[in-house]
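We were asked to recover a plausible sequence for a given structure. The inputs and outputs are reproduced exactly as logged, with field labels preserved.

PROBLEM: sequence recovery
POSITIONS: 587
GIVEN STRUCTURE:
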């Protein structure tokens, strides 16, 4: 499956504004009560504001013209009271929506993070961490801004406009239509331009992601950059990404600001129309001054929010572009689904069996071609072959980091796809080529993913470590279990990292232990120690060892040669050596 989020195939799935917004609202259904309260407050606010021009018009025609000061004071008091309540409703909804926005941000970030964690390794192969971070941090924040600041203003402005429109039409139908005509032009203009504006914002968010990916890549590889003196190269790449972001941000800014001048112009035209026609109607005796004032007031109530809407609509486009990028992740499903359990009569006693397995990475050539393989319990297997021959890929299929493109992998006679993740990882321990350590202590790192000893005290754990013959390895670290590990294992040598990863895997007592170049950075004395520990593992533990160092594999029961899509028995170590030499010469 193609998991590349920045690939063109995903663009076809982009939702319209309406569908995107509907999907987004589904995510915040639990905020229904607060949204309704805020909605009520904003409607009340709009209604109170709308009563203003009518009261002013009434005051002019009935109290000012007729010099009724008592009525004027009363009317003014009502007006002040109304504006005070309107102020309170505005404060109330702002506070409420601020909280809704923050909670939405929280929910969204959790939803994306949890989804990312469910996705298979292929997803991480195809996407840059920086871009994913930008989606989790930056794009969700765009939505938060929309929710906490813009949504209710948006609804309030719309409600105000609809109310003002009703007043305009009901006060004088023809004049109302003339006043509202520029709004029709605005609507058409907005509909035509919105997809373009959203696209500009989507491109901008993509370049923010690319910039973030660039930063992440250079920070993650700073040692290589310094060692190879590639600062200039990375500076150039960063400048390019930064420049791209600058260009797209500028054009998104222009796109976002295109509404405002046009809306303002239409608004001024509408007010001019009211004035001209209103003055004409007064001279004809069909209108009063108060009515023209009210008309101007309502035209203002109709067109002022429109100006605000111009900015809000741009915010909405940014938020929807962000939401598209977020939904791209939320809509992904892992293709490593768990299928129903179906016992397969084992063709053999094998712990792991490959039946006609084919595999290729997305958009790549086939790496494994029709492989049939049996790994028996308790035996040690070595996978050897030239660089890039497919050893790690074979091991990854055994551990179900990927599924075969064809054929099936069986674990204890059962399709490996029918095991839950927990069952499978309990049975298989995989020590990767580049072990990753988490910030914490060695204890936390060796217990990573190990439920059995999660709450064990240091003393209890030390006993388990002794029983597993690992105490000599732990002794390499001065502060034992409490040795601090920082920033992914910085400050710890690669060999030491491999020892911690080794202890982590052995302590889980798996049925199958895969060591992928797991001792490549360990001195020969310590390697001998690891070999002894491996020998003392339960007799039923199957071991798969991938190694270039031949002394590591000399005790294997069976050696497999992996190259050019094939996994074949190499027979003796000597034979394997010759095959590797041949394979290397060919490639
Ligand atoms: N994530 C990936 N996406 C695409 N192609 C990949 C990926 N990982 C490996 N490959 C390709 O698959 C082939 C086999 O790679 P693999 O890592 O299995 O080889 P290997 O025998 O373990 O090599 P080495 O001895 O260098 O570790 C190589 O051509 C490699 O470029």
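RECOVERED SEQUENCE:
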């Amino acid at each position: 499956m193609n998991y590349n989020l920045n690939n063109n195939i995903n663009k076809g799935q982009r939702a319209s504004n309406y569908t995107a917004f509907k999907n987004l609202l589904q995510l915040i259904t639990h905020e229904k009560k607060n949204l309704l309260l805020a909605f009520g407050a904003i409607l009340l606010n709009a209604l109170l504001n709308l009563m203003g021009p009518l009261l002013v018009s009434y005051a002019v025609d009935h109290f000012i013209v007729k010099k009724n000061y008592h009525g004027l004071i009363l009317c003014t008091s009502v007006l002040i009271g109304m504006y005070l309540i309107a102020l309170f409703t505005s404060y109330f909804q702002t506070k409420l929506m601020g909280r809704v926005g923050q909670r939405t941000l929280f929910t969204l970030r959790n939803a994306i993070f949890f989804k990312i964690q469910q996705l298979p390794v292929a997803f991480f192969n195809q996407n840059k961490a920086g871009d994913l971070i930008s989606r989790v941090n930056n794009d969700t924040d765009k939505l938060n801004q929309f929710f906490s600041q813009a949504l209710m203003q948006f609804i309030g402005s719309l409600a105000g406009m609809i109310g003002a429109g009703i007043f305009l039409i009901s006060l004088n139908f023809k004049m109302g239509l003339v006043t509202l005509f520029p709004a029709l032009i605005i609507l058409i203009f907005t509909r035509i331009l919105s997809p373009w504006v959203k696209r500009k914002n989507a491109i901008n968010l993509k370049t923010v992601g690319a910039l973030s990916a660039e930063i992440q890549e250079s920070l993650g590889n700073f040692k290589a950059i310094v060692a190879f003196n590639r600062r200039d190269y990375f500076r150039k790449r960063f400048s390019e990404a930064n420049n791209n972001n600058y260009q797209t941000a500028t054009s998104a800014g222009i796109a976002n600001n295109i509404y405002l001048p046009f809306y303002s112009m239409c608004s001024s035209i509408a007010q001019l129309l009211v004035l001209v026609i209103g003055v004409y109607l007064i001279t004809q005796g069909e209108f009063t001054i108060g009515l023209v004032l009210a008309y101007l007031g309502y035209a203002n109530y109709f067109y002022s929010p429109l100006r605000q809407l111009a900015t809000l609509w741009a915010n909405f486009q940014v938020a929807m572009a962000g939401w598209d990028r977020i939904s791209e992740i939320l809509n992904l499903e892992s293709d490593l689904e768990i299928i129903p359990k179906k016992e397969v009569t084992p063709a053999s006693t094998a712990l792991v069996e490959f039946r006609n397995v084919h595999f290729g990475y997305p958009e790549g050539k086939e790496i494994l071609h029709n492989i049939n393989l049996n790994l028996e319990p308790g035996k040690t297997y070595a996978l050897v072959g030239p660089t890039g021959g497919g050893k790690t890929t074979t091991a990854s299929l055994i551990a179900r980091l990927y599924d075969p493109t064809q054929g099936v992998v069986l674990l204890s006679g059962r399709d490996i796809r029918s095991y839950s993740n927990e069952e499978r990882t309990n049975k298989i321990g995989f020590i990767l080529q580049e072990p990753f350590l988490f910030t914490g202590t060695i204890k936390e790192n060796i217990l990573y993913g190990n439920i059995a000893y999660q709450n064990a005290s240091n003393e209890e754990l030390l006993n388990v470590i002794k029983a597993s013959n690992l105490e000599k390895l732990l002794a390499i670290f001065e502060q034992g279990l409490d040795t601090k590990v920082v920033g992914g294992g910085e400050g710890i040598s690669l060999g030491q990292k491999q020892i911690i990863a080794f202890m982590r895997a052995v302590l889980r007592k798996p049925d199958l232990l895969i060591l992928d170049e797991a001792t490549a950075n360990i001195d020969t004395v310590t390697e001998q120690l690891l070999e002894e520990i491996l020998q003392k593992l339960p007799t039923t533990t199957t071991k798969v060892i991938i190694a270039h160092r031949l002394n590591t594999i000399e005790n294997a029961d069976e050696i497999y040669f992996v190259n050019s899509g094939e996994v074949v028995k190499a027979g003796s170590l000597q034979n394997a050596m010759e095959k590797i030499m041949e394979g290397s010469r060919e490639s």
